[in-house]
Amino acid sequence: MIQEGQREELSTETRSLRASGLTDEIGFLIARAKLVTLELVDEQLEEFGLKRQSYATLSLACTEYGLTQRELAASLKVDPSRLVAILDELQGRNLVVREVDPADRRSRTIRATDAGRQLCAQAAESVRRVEELLLGEIPAGERATIMGALRRIAFPSPRP
């Protein structure tokens, strides 16, 4: 927060954005926050040989639920053909395995290997450091409010 008598130094870009009114629009703010966040996350994931979608896929494969490829694609909002390429890469690195789904032999359930779980845990810690960098100056109560609001936006209740 700017104290009285303190001059705020703003870039031309920031002054232009504020003047346009975009910084008062939720869609713009969410998109901008996403871009800033993902740029930092991408830098961190590179260390592990992962990209955002492969990290998210691996994270879901580490859960106990054993999602099918179709369920993974729907959860991640990824085209199924793109998911196949992600899974091929992860399987090639021995991070996930495809198993026959006992409920439907035509489907494959994706599970992380021990190596996949270990890499995912390391990558998740790195992503948490990015979150701390981005949210570090925001008090815990406000963080919880922000996260709660974003969850409600990302996962809206069904409309009647």
From TrEMBL:
Q: Which Pfam families match?
A: MarR_2 (PF12802)
Question: Membrane spanning segments where?
Answer: none
Q: Where is the HTH marR-type domain?
A: 23-155
Superkingdom of the source species: Bacteria
**InterPro entries given in the database record:** HTH_MarR-typ, MarR/SlyA-like, WH-like_DNA-bd_sf, WH_DNA-bd_sf
| Protein name as annotated | MarR family transcriptional regulator
Specify the species: Arthrobacter ginkgonis
Higher taxonomy: Bacteria, Bacillati, Actinomycetota, Actinomycetes, Micrococcales
